[in-house]
Amino acid sequence: MSMFWIVIRQLAETGEAMATSKKVITREEWEKKLNDVQIRKEDMNKLVMNFLVTEGYVEAAEKFRMESGTEPDIDLATITDRMAVKNAVQCGNVEDAIEKVNDLNPEILDTNPQLFFHLQQQRLIELIRNGKVEEALEFAQEELAPRGEENQSFLEELERTVALLAFEDVSNCPVGELLDMSQRLKTASEVNAAILTSQSHEKDPKLPSLLKMLIWAQNQLDEKAAYPRINDLSNATLEDPAI
Amino acid sequence: MPSTSSRHELSELLAGLASNDWEVKLGALRHMKNKIIGKKDKKLDFVELGAVAAVAKTLSDALNVNGEGNPDNIKNNIIIQSATVLGSFACGFDAGAQAVINAGAFFNLARLLSIQDAKVVDAGARSLRMVYQSKLAPKYNFLQDENMKRLISLLSNENENVSGLGASIITHSCKTTAEQVALCDAGILEKLTSLLEGSISQRDASLESLATILKNNTEVVLKFVENENGRSLDSVIELAKNKYPRTRLLACICLIVIRNTCPSFLQDIGIKAKLVRTLLELLEDPCVGDEAPFAFSSLIAQKEELQRLALEASAIEKLYCQLQKDPLRPKYIEGILLALADMCSMLESCRDSFLKLEVLDLVTKALSHDSDDVCIAACICIRSVSRSVKNLCAGHFMKDTIVTPLVKLFIKSSTAVQVAALGAISNIVVDFTTRKSAFIQCGGLKELVQLSESMDGSVRSNALWALRNLIFLADNKLKEDVFIELKAPLLASLISDPEPFVQEQAMAFVRNLVDGCIDSIEYAFTDDSLILKAIGKQLQSTAKVEIRIQGMYVLSNVAAGKDSHKEAVMNQLLPQAVSIRDQYFVIRFLQSSDSQLRTATVWALLNVTHPRSDPGAFGRYIKLQEVGIITQIKNMINDPCLEVKLRVRTILEKYASFGGSLL
Q: Which segments constitute the CTLH domain (chain A) (predicted)?
């Protein structure tokens, strides 16, 4: 029995020792280590270009290409088309956006029932926002109801959207968030992603993944060491470790 | 029925199409395109109202016109837009594809591929690809040289829609071994492998085509695996880890096809585990469609080891989890149920897991689904799970909640559904604890007997199978109830049924019927021995060994009764009508190469001549000796089958003092 207690005590002691034995790295040491890591300019340029292209900043991408000599991995002309669609949705001109998508690639909406439903849903929201109640009802019946019939998983969202029509004060009703700009942005982002995928391009830029990796790696390292951390991603300054 | 708004819209559009002004035509086409994309209901309405023919004519006119004042780019735009509209009609929609073909547009769309305008080619290729996704597309003849050349040039084209078209054609039309070999010989495998490095759609299309060419063709699979020292196969294995779910699924399907065709490949435990895990993940992914559970089934069906791996990877839990979601598409539910059926088809551990999780409740609910295919899948699942002997014998399946919906399915008109339900019931009625009361109480017996009179042979034979299992080791009361319902004349006619499978099951039924106590044997003698005579007649004429075996076991069971029973059997064994030159069927059976038949025959002979103390036993032995049957038996003293040997020796031992030694 006593042997048991000796072992337990020993384990507790080593545990404590481990808790205080986190490695401490000073700013000086850290910065020295960082300086030793080699990063290539071309890689950074590519990341920037990738971000501009994926997010659709055509002019910026053009200028960046001229000034840095970095080649984009997709044709900038296709970005213009894609941005026209995204902007149309963001301005609430959904019908126009649909026509543009169909001109760009007629298969996208034919093979993406969820995306098409969301676009039609956005159209309905815009009609309601503009006070065109009768038109909205007709649209819901003619265009959206059949989507719900073809695919039952859309029914819930459809009901939420139609519920907007039941409220006088739409901005205060339970489904009022559908009228927010955020809903338009959500739909716009979905269309953007679908177009990118159809062009065999990555729908997400690489930059966010890198930042996520950084945060994850720091969290892992936190368990083993105290070191200068980057806490604010937007300015990326090193903050001294708390000792 | 097309809606009023559709009629109205279309008549305006058709007016636009009919205009001589090309700008107006173009406008009408673009309007129609935007009206139908993404809307199946609109496509259906427009197809019914004849829109496709009008668009096909517009395309044809534009192709055949020669300048005439209208600039080329407008003409090309009209061609592009009409092709796009036709393609959209055909997209994922069989009625649309059929309409496009019927309107004669197919040939014109193919012409677009040779036009010197990249956008026109692109539109044509896209539309044709849509048509080829439908089973109704015209078959492509690969065995013709010109066609093969054309296919190769399609696959070599840089445009992903054109190369994708080539791949779709293969997936659609390659059906026979000869075609697979022809494609392989023409170097198509290499072309498809290079497309694996292309864009997403090229990769996916190529994976589908590869699976089609490789399926069940050992020669082609060998060539593929050896291609470039295994690099082609490695590419596919890599794609099974791709980040796009659909690509992962298609790559897995390809690998499964290779494994199933040539079991010596992809035997590595790592690959097997990876396939199992990947497919189970894909089950949960909504954008992968309904194919994932079917792919999973093709991986594990009939393969114990893979079922074990899947069980360890919590496959039953995951499948159950999917089944609980709502709403689900019928095709997907069917796939999940069939996957569960495959999982439980061989291993008791899987069935245990299934029953513990109470998946059975959901599966029995599916028995009342609107879709026939879902009902069938649910029946197959229950049949698999009810192979669990311990649960079966404990009566866990003989419950009202399970039996009543199954019996309801008997009344459905589709024979496929009836057969599936019969399959499930056949197992369930093998139950010893509850005396099958749930089944009898819900009117199952009556329905079963009705099905044994069905017009469809497979329904009759499956109904008899269920009846046979129902009376297996059943008590006298149940046998009586069954016999009253079935009646001797029906049974006799089933014994002489035109379908051999029905005859076999009918005989097997009688075997179980007369087995047991002596009173049961009397059933064979009702209505002037109607049944016994039918069996004797069948034994004389049938050539099928399975029927002969069942028949002999019937005679053997009857001969286990009283003296009069044994005499009756003798009359069947030695029919009067046989002339001296013809051999008695008994002798033919004894000489059979099938040990089961020899065994059954020898049992019958043993039973007619035993016990030795029976008044007629000796007389029967002499009769058998007279016609040479005993001589035949003596030749079987050292029969390779132990059971035969023992019975033969028993017969001869008892009569040793009468004409013949054992040696």
A: 78-135
pLDDT by residue (tens digit) across B257-301?
999 999 999 888 999 999 999 999 999 887 787 899 999 999 999
| C-alpha angle B34-A95-B160 in degrees, rounded to nearest 5 | 50
Helix axes B22-36, B51-64, angle to 10 degrees: 140
Identify the residue whose tokens are 């009023």: B4
Is B378 in contact with B370 (CB distance < 8 Å)?
no
Chain A residues with CB-CB distance to B39 below 8 A: 143, 146-147
List A238's β-bridge partners, or say none: A230
Residues 6+ away with beta carbon under 8 Å from B517: B476
Over residues B403-411, mean pLDDT: 92
Tell which A residues from 112 to 131 touch B, by Cβ distance under 8 Å. 112-113, 116
Closest-CA residue of chain A to B34: A99
Please name every residue paired with A226 in a beta bridge, in sequence order, or none if there are none. Answer: A24
Q: What does each C-alpha distance from A146 to B39, B51, B326, B606 come to in angstroms?
A: 8, 20, 19, 74
Contacts of residue B40 in chain A, CB cutoff 8 Å? 146, 150
The Cα A192–Cα B465 span in angstroms is: 59
> Any bridge partners for residue A24, and if so which?
A226
For B399, counting Cβ atoms within 10 Å of its Cβ (0-12 exposed, 13-18 middle, 19+ buried), the class is middle
Q: Does the beta-carbon distance from A102 to B34 stay under 8 Å?
A: yes
Q: With an 8 Å Cβ cutoff, are B200 and A197 in contact?
A: yes
Which pLDDT score, from 0 to 100, does residue A242 have?
Answer: 65
Chain A: residue nearest B288 by CA?
Answer: A112
Express each pLDDT in A212-227 by its tens digit.
999 999 999 999 999 9
Neighbours of A113 (CB within 10 A): 17
What would the DSSP string read from start to end of B588-630?
HHHT-S-HHHHHHHHHHHHHHH-STTSTTHHHHHHHHHHTTHH
Whether chain B has a CB inside 8 Å of the CB on A75: the answer is no
By C-alpha distance, the chain B residue nearest A97 is: B34
B39 to chain A, any CB pair closer than 8 A? The answer is yes
Q: How many CB pairs under 8 A join A and B?
A: 45
B contacts of A116 (beta carbons < 8 Å): 37-38
Given CB atoms, is A55 within the 8 Å cutoff of chain B? no
The whole-number pLDDT of residue A6 equals 60
Query: What residue in A sits closest to B38 (Cα-Cα)?
Result: A110
Pairing of strands A229-230, A23-24: unpaired
Q: How far apart, in whole angstroms, are the C-alpha atoms of residue A103 and residue A86?
A: 14
pTM (2 d.p.)? 0.83
Is A106 at the interface with chain B, CB within 8 A? yes
Q: Which of B470, B454, B554, B456 is nearest to B504 (CA)?
A: B554
Using DSSP, state whether B505 is helix, strand or coil: helix
CB atoms B37 and A106 under 8 Å: yes
Cα(B48)–Cα(B56) distance, integer angstroms: 15
Distance CA B284, CA B281 (A): 6
Across the interface, which of A106, A113, A150 has its CB nearest the CB of B88?
Answer: A106
DSSP-derived secondary structure letter, B388: -
Task: Give the residue from B448, B384, B442 showing the smallest Cα distance to B418.
Answer: B448
| Distance of alpha carbon B612 from alpha carbon B364, whole angstroms | 54
Whether the bond between A72 and the residue before it is cis, its omega within 30 degrees of 0, is no
